[in-house]
Write a structure and sequence with these properties.
Layout lengths: L2 H23 L2 H31 L14 H34 L3 E5 L5 E4 L1 H7 L11 H4 L3 H9 L6 E4 L7 E9 L3 E8 L1 H37 L4 H33 L8 E2 L1 H16 L4 E7 L3 E3 L2 H17 L6 E9 L2 E8 L21 H6 L6 H10 L4 E7 L3 E9 L3 E2 L8
Parallel strand pairs: 7-9
Antiparallel strand pairs: 1-2, 1-5, 3-4, 4-5, 6-8, 8-13, 9-10, 10-12, 11-12
Helix pairs in contact: 1-2, 7-8, 8-12, 9-10, 10-12
This protein binds adenosine-5'-diphosphate.
Length: 437
């Protein structure tokens, strides 16, 4: 039995004993009066505690006192402790809920929780952005009243969520969205919204690339197989035979160049980032480019080299040589005979610059933003005639951007072009600095 209860019983027994004793010693009435006063005292004591717990239960708070005395001490203390534990538990659970909600808000995917009637219970910021709904005004609204695109409404109404729905949003610049619906809890649904615009774009680019490569290979292959047929089935003179063989070599060279450019592009794309410790002997590279220009031009152009400053580049030599070499070869190929080509090289602590200026056919400004796209050509026939694959400038762009370098294109149709590759200071190595060769 709890000590407090024993104390209470002892108090009652002592009051009764005192009452009996006074009743025997003085008069029975005196005994009853004392006993009654003791009972009234007890009642007042219990009423006071009842009042305390009643008041506390209306606004329980660990800060408010709930101090019981005597028989009330222990139950008060237990209630108080229990309430404190509950409060701690609720605080902990609230923290968990907040963490989940914050994580849900941070997701890139849009999330919308629907109740059993399809009304929005909760959604995150991404869902607001993708679907144009608002947590402030739209909670409790049926989602199909807010996102009214027919494909979306039909998908939700059909209730078959085995495959995700793809549709073009009428907001976010017509972004492509992928919608998945998952059942959770009793009769609730979770809508997951993903922006797949970029993935679709990449997919389209991959398809275009495969179609372009197939097309580029099919033309020379068709020509080659036609000539083979001719060689096999027709009686040809030695002169005709060597003419056909020369045309076939031209076609196979064309395919070889295409495959070489494709391999260069793919090796640049898959290689690890170029090191900053590797020294590229800039003077030797620029001189080699100058000689290559002469070799390609075979005396058809007036080619000059202007060089300023000293220092080397940091990076992957084969990639830089490939990028700058393509600019030089383009200048030669797109400058009519008798034209002028100037290579300008400048290097210093603030960065390096390689410019190729020609007096060639020039480019309409309309084409300039697209020149570095794979297989983009201003004049397909002219590019092919001069041995172009349509991949040169995309190799330039990739190789330069891997070295944090930029490509600037200026051109005037009929007057000429200037292609400039600019390397930042971080890619310049002073002549006396030690790097790996
Ligand atoms: P291509 O193999 O066709 O030369 P590129 O990617 O190197 O492919 O160049 C893309 C297109 O840019 C070319 O087809 C050509 O129309 C244009 N172009 C590139 N360099 C020059 C230049 N120096 N002068 C004029 N047009 C150029």
């Amino acid at each position: 039995m709890p000590v407090s209860l024993v104390t209470a019983q002892a108090y009652l027994a002592a009051s009764a004993a005192l009452g009996l004793f006074l009743g025997w010693l003085v008069a029975p009435i005196a005994g009853w009066v004392v006993f009654s006063l003791a009972l009234v005292g007890q009642l007042a004591y219990h009423l006071r505690h009842w009042f305390l717990i009643d008041r506390w239960s209306r606004a329980p708070s660990p800060a408010a006192d709930l101090d019981g005395t005597g028989i009330w001490y222990e139950p008060f203390f237990r209630v108080y402790r229990h309430e404190r534990e509950l409060r701690r538990e609720i605080g902990h659970l609230q923290g968990e809920v907040e963490r989940f909600a914050t994580a849900g808000q941070a997701l890139n995917d849009g999330i919308v929780a629907l109740d059993l009637t399809g009304r929005i219970e909760w959604c995150n910021r991404s869902a607001e952005r993708y679907l144009g709904i608002s947590r402030r005004t739209d909670l409790g609204q049926p989602i199909i009243n807010l996102v009214r695109q027919p494909a979306f409404v039909a998908y939700l109404n059909a209730g078959d969520f085995a495959e995700p729905l793809r549709f073009r949003s009428d907001r976010n610049d017509g972004a492509s969205l992928s919608i998945r619906v998952t059942d959770y809890g009793p009769d609730r649904q979770l809508i997951q919204v993903k922006d797949v615009t970029q993935a679709e774009r990449l997919d389209q680019m991959r398809r275009d690339f495969v179609a372009n490569v197939s097309h580029e290979l099919r033309t020379p292959l068709t020509v080659l197989s036609g000539f083979l047929e001719t060689l096999r089935e027709m009686e040809l003179t030695a002169e005709e035979r060597s003419h056909y063989l020369a045309l076939m070599t031209e076609q196979s060279d064309r395919m070889l160049r295409l495959v070489q450019d494709l391999l260069t592009l793919s090796s640049i794309e898959s290689a690890p980032p170029p090191s900053e410790d590797q020294r590229v002997d800039a003077a030797a590279l620029v001189n080699k480019l100058f000689q290559d220009a002469h070799a390609l031009s075979a005396g058809r152009h007036d080619i000059r080299l202007e060089s300023r400053g000293s220092g080397d580049l940091r990076g992957e030599e084969s990639e830089i040589a490939s990028a700058l070499g393509n600019l030089v070869s383009n200048a030669v190929r797109y400058t009519p005979d008798g034209g002028r080509i100037t290579l300008r090289w400048a290097i210093g602590p603030e960065g390096a610059e390689f410019a190729v200026e020609d007096s060639g056919i020039g480019i309409d400004p309309l084409h300039i933003p697209r020149l570095t796209e794979r297989f983009y050509r201003v004049d397909r026939g002219r590019s092919r005639e001069s041995g172009g694959t349509g991949l040169g400038l995309s190799i330039v762009k990739h190789a330069l951007s891997r070295h944090q370098a930029s490509l600037d294109i200026r051109s005037t149709p009929g007057q000429g072009s200037c292609f400039t590759a600019r390397f930042p200071a971080s890619r310049v190595m002073a002549a006396d600095e030690v790097g790996s060769a």
